[in-house]
Amino acid sequence: MTIEVCLESIASVLAAEQGGADRVEFCADLFEGGTTPSLGAFKTARSRSSIAMNVMIRPRGGDFCYSDLEFEAMKEDVRLFREAGCDGIVFGILTADGQIDVQRSAELIALARPCSVTFHRAFDMTVDASRSLETLIGLGVDRVLTSGMEATVGEGIQTLRSLVEQAGDKIIVMPGCGITERNFASIHQQVGAKEYHVFLPGTYESSMAFRPDHIYMGGMLRQPEFSISHTDPARVKTITALQGGLV
To answer: Which residues contact 140 (CB under 8 A, 6 or more apart)?
Structure first.
């Protein structure tokens, strides 16, 4: 069983490794669901960690129907991160009618090899789960991250079970979204997947002593300025400790 941790900072990569995770999905801006991280952040993390690192290729938040300019940026990012030593590429591209964009996906897959390829939760925004899975199998995608076409894995259990059965050994179905150390064992018993995607944050206090309270660096919907989120290694350890006892 493989545990992948979703995260957005160098410190979180090190924390996930400390906690015993098998792999990380390195992103930026998880508030938007994850976008492409900076190359500098990835290279710094890569130089300090030996954990397997997959990189999110997503030029912006929002939908997964991209302009020609956005797609060009995605191709360039795939090339840069592959050359920088990532283990895998994570992306998702759809057509306007909710289908997998086969042509563009094939282009990114060809650029990404020999890195592994994950199709992310754009899958959950497609019209038909079973048909979309067969499309990804045909494209040669290594794994698909999915919550079972629902807001969380807990709500998508039935679909996830069906997708795992349909996938067999042709593609890895990796449940993700809403999995915690409290429900992990129960979800695995119901779904029986080979890989799981988790987000296990903690917070630590900013080192700033001077804290003006009338200036904000974000918009009206904002997170606390002096509380910083990062992966909690203790939470990761709790889940990885369960791996050996689950079959």
So the answer is: 109, 117
| Tally of helices (H runs) and strands (E runs) in the chain | 8, 10
Placement of tokens 């290694």 in the chain = 233
Q: Specify whether the CB–CB gap between 53 and 45 falls below 8 A.
A: yes
Whether residue 91 contacts residue 108, with contact meaning beta carbons closer than 8 Å, is answered with yes
Rounded distance, CA 32 to CA 45, Å? 22
pLDDT of residue 246: 67
Instruction: Strand 23-26: give its sheet, edge to edge.
Output: 172-175, 143-146, 116-119, 88-91, 52-56, 23-26, 2-7, 195-198
- Between CA 152 and CA 129 the distance in angstroms is 15
- Quick one: which H or E segment has residue 230? strand 227-231
Total-model pTM: 0.89
Chain position carrying tokens 């779904």: 191
10-residue mean pLDDT series, the chain (247 residues): 97 97 97 96 98 97 95 98 98 97 98 98 98 98 98 97 98 97 96 97 89 76 67 89 72
**Structural domains for the chain:** 2-199+233-243 (3.20.20.380)
Give the model's pLDDT for residue 138.
Answer: 98
d(CA 228, CA 3): 24
Which letter does DSSP use for residue 204 in this model?
Answer: E
Give the ranges where the chain is alpha helix by DSSP (H): 10-18, 39-48, 68-84, 102-112, 129-139, 157-167, 184-191, 233-243
As given in the structure block, the two tokens for residue 12 are: 């979180």
